[in-house]
Amino acid sequence: MVFVKRRVDPSEIKARINYSVSASPTISLSDPDAKLRVNLTLSVVQAEPGRGTSSLTFCTEGSIFEIAPPDGGGVDVAGRGGFALGNSDNPDRWISLGLLRVHLAHRDYPSPDLRERGFRFASVPSAVGDAGSTAAATTTTLTHELSWERIFRYEDKLTKDNLVPGEKFKVWVNSGLAGCTWWCWGDLQTNLRDKRLHEYHETWHKYGPPRPSDDLPKEGHWVLGEDPDLLEWENITPGRGAVFEIVE
User: Fold this and answer.
1) DSSP code of residue 5
2) CB atoms < 10 A from the CB of 230, how many?
3) 64, 1 in Cβ contact below 8 A?
4) 3-state SS track over 23-59
5) In DSSP terms, which residues pair with 15 in a beta bridge?
6) How far apart are CA 116 and CA 204, in angstroms?
7) Which of 59, 91, 100, 101 has a Cα at 20 to 30 A from 11?
């Protein structure tokens, strides 16, 4: 999905995540099991006052950070236009990873707990410590692995046999798919480990049920979401993408 955000005053932003793209330096034509690894490295570089070295956790569904395909199979994020592969020297030579439009049917869930629904999450540490110092753990890296079969699954012009050793390609990410529909402060491995993640977030009242009772978080170890529009995302990759080489 493309994340459409409303305009907000910069002073209202609660956090900003920088992300960068890197890839395997080479992929071998002679290795049938070779995989192109596309790495997305994230870090919280801005947090609202009082958060200090707080990590944050976000739902990866529908974004370029969704590593595994949807439950039950289906089209992965690369097939939904999340990435593009293009020759570094020939702008007309592209490998399509897919640009499929997937219809997401509405489902009624018995529980408001996003974890029980099977949604996936990622936690990102802060690169900014107290009083502007640098925090110890500063990044999270999520890796997509693209086999030869996956690279050419939706490509109808080129095949693996058309590639030439020494040829260089660049992988870009679709910045429109960098975002989330739900996030909160905290880390999945520590203070969120035993918490239930409630579907509600601060803009949900405009489109769905009203805010739960203030007693809810206390009664069931619940965590409510923050406003997704107040979380910024920025691609800081030099050249906006990563280059890899085709080798024998």
Assistant:
1) -
2) 19
3) no
4) ECCEEECCCCCCEEEEEEEEEEEEECCCCCCCCEEEE
5) 47, 231
6) 19
7) 59
Contacts of the segment 207-215: beta carbons below 8 A, 24+ positions apart: 212/112
The rounded distance, in Å, linking the Cα atoms of 44 and 15 is 7
* % residues pLDDT > 70 (the chain): 85
Strand partners, 235: 19
Q: Token pair for residue 247?
A: 């080798």
CB 56 within 8 A of CB 183: yes
Burial label, 189 (beta-carbon count in 10 A; 0-12, 13-18, 19+): exposed
121/115 Cα distance (integer angstroms):
9
User: Which residues have CB under 8 Å from 34's CB, separation 6+?
Assistant: 27, 28, 147, 148
Report how far residue 136's alpha carbon sits from residue 114's, in angstroms, rounded to the nearest whole number. Answer: 30
Dihedral sign, CA of 171, 141, 50, 208? positive
- For residue 80, report the phi and psi dihedrals to the nearest 5 degrees: -100, 15
**3 state SS of 176:** helix
Strands 56-59 and 121-124: antiparallel
Measured in degrees and rounded to the nearest 5, phi and psi for residue 84 equal -135, 140
- Largest Cα–Cα distance of the chain, in whole Å? 63
Residues of the chain with pLDDT under 50: 131-135
pLDDT, tens only, 158-209:
999 999 999 999 999 999 999 999 999 999 999 999 899 998 887 765 666 6
- Dist. CA 242–CA 172, nearest whole Å: 7
